[in-house]
Every structure is written in C-alpha cells, then in structure tokens.
Amino acid sequence: MTIGIIGAMREEITPLLEFYKEYERIEAAGNTFYKVNYKQVHIIIAYSKIGKVHAAITASIMIATFGCEQLIFSGVAGGLTKKLKVGDLVLATSLCQHDVDISAFGHALGFIPEGKLFYESDSKLHNLALQVAKNIGLNIYEGIVASGDQFIASQEKKDFITKEFGAVAVEMEGASVACVCDNFKIPCCIFRSISDSADGEANVSFDEFLESSAKVSANFVTKLINEIVADLS
Ligand code: ADE
C-alpha cells in the first residue's frame, strides 16, 4: 500500500518529515517528493506550493507516477464559523471551489460542467479518522471546506462563501486534490487545522499560527496512518 500526504507549504509537511525521520528525496514535475518506508506501507510526502493548480499537479503525480492508492491532505485553513478557533482540527466532509464562476451560462457558482459542485471525502478514511479522534479524545469538527486561489481576509468574502456553499473553513488546495482523486477513483481525506478566521486580521494570525496549527494537523495524520496500517493486517 502506498499512501500520499500533501501539504501546500513546507511548514505543513515539516512535522511529518521530522516524525518519520528517514526518507528518500525524489524530484519530479518541478517538485520534491519524500519517500518513507513505514511499517508495511510506503508514504510519499510533498508540499505542492500554494493553490489549486499546484495541488492538482502534486496529487496527479502522486497517483500516476508514485502509485499512491490513497491521498491525505494535511495543512491549515481559515475558519468561517465562530465555533472554530485557532488550532481546532477540521475534517472535510466535502469540498467545493468557491472561486469558480461560469454563471453567465446558467451554471451554479462553483460548478464546472462534467465536474462536481461538491467532492466528497472517502467514507472509510473519514470514519477511520473519527475513530482515531475518539480514541485520543480529540474533538474534530466536520464540515464543508471551500477552496479557491484567494487568501480570504474579509468579512464580506467570508459571508459569501458561507452563504453560497455552507462551508465551515476556507483554504486554497483541498477541492483540487479531491477532484483529482475523484477522477482517478482514489480515496482521499482532507484535514485542516485553523490558523486564522479569514477576516481582516487573517494575514497576521496566519503568520503567527501557521507552524503550530500545521503541527496539529500533521500529528493527527501520523495517528491516522497508524490506524490505516493496523487496518491492513
Ligand atoms: N489558509 C489558511 N487561512 C486561509 C485563508 N484565510 N484563506 C485562504 N486559505 C487559507
């Protein structure tokens, strides 16, 4: 079994590389992939660089070149609901692209013909993640995550994304990874720990909490990997 773990930024995968310690570096498609042999699985780790295009390239290479059979995204997000505080962990139930707009042709915002408005996370991985959270007594927040090539830092944009898509968190990659996985028929699961509230202070909060929140998500993903491995035997 080969599992891919993607982050968008270096800070989002550094805790994973520190945890697994030994890895091989492989260059492909303008990116560095880190191959870890862990128990009876292989893990491919990479940061894609920010945005949906970069994340889609990384996800595709992980599947098509490295043979990943499951993809997990680990990183940070802006919280759209007051219930989410910095450091809280969000598990995406489904993901959408909040910046897609071909409504001039009568399509719903976020919808691309022959694509999907919402890409679901894999139910088996999702349930396994909930089980892990329960086992370690961690409160995990489930909801729709919206992705777009924009850093959201205003109440107006927050309100739009919340009302239009019912999203609880916003980031810049998850939906593209979920879309790639849907097309390749590969299970995927997206984790995000809150770094900011996507408001006027979001840039300051992001800079302050990127590292600590990235660690929350990465730590959880290492525990999920253990559960996936245990489930194999
Ligand atoms: N990732 C973390 N915070 C974000 C925000 N406010 N907007 C988009 N992506 C984010």
UniProtKB/TrEMBL annotation:
Its EC number is 3.2.2.9. GO terms for biological process: L-methionine salvage from methylthioadenosine; L-methionine salvage from S-adenosylmethionine; nucleoside catabolic process. The keyword Amino-acid biosynthesis applies. GO terms for molecular function: adenosylhomocysteine nucleosidase activity; methylthioadenosine nucleosidase activity. Keywords: Amino-acid biosynthesis, Hydrolase, Methionine biosynthesis. Pfam families: PNP_UDP_1 (PF01048). Pathway: Amino-acid biosynthesis; L-methionine biosynthesis via salvage pathway; S-methyl-5-thio-alpha-D-ribose 1-phosphate from S-methyl-5'-thioadenosine (hydrolase route): step 1/2. The keyword Amino-acid biosynthesis applies. It comes from the Bacteria. CDD domains: MTAN (cd09008). GO terms for cellular component: cytosol. Residues 2-225 form the Nucleoside phosphorylase domain. SUPFAM superfamilies: Purine and uridine phosphorylases (SSF53167). PANTHER family: 5'-METHYLTHIOADENOSINE/S-ADENOSYLHOMOCYSTEINE NUCLEOSIDASE (PTHR46832), 5'-METHYLTHIOADENOSINE_S-ADENOSYLHOMOCYSTEINE NUCLEOSIDASE (PTHR46832:SF1). This is adenosylhomocysteine nucleosidase.
